[in-house]
Write a structure and sequence with these properties.
This protein is α+β, with helices and mostly antiparallel strands. The chain has a single domain, classed as Coenzyme PQQ synthesis protein D (PqqD) (Arc Repressor Mutant, subunit A). Helices cover 33% and strands 24% of the residues. The protein contains three helices and five strands; from the N terminus they run ββββαααβ. The protein has a three-stranded antiparallel beta sheet with strand order 2-3-4. The protein has a two-stranded antiparallel sheet with strand order 1-5. The protein starts with 8 loop residues before the first strand and ends with a strand.
């Protein structure tokens, strides 16, 4: 399913996003377990707040990490997260 890049995206209700010191990375917690989000995946998911669209998340990350073309990598990750049911467009 293609994610609408112009609509705000949110974390699905069954997930909770947080930093997990024992894992030394961000994770998505859900009733059956957790999903590790190391490195850039955690940085992307930090911006999934229900206010920003995919395009706005990409723009914010490119501001945070200047000189790096992140668009395709961020889009691929968020499409994958959408396909797995972690996020959805509002």
């Amino acid at each position: 399913m293609t994610l609408d890049v112009t609509k705000p995206i949110v974390l699905e209700r069954q997930f909770r996003f947080q930093f997990e010191p024992a894992q030394e990375c961000y994770v998505l917690l859900y009733p059956e377990g957790l999903i590790k989000l190391p490195g850039s995946s955690g940085e992307i998911m930090k911006l999934v707040d229900g206010k920003l669209s995919v395009n706005e998340i990409i723009a914010q990350l490119e501001t945070n990490f200047p000189g790096v073309d992140l668009k395709q990598d961020v889009l691929d990750f968020l499409e994958n997260a959408n396909d797995k049911g972690w996020i959805r467009a509002e």
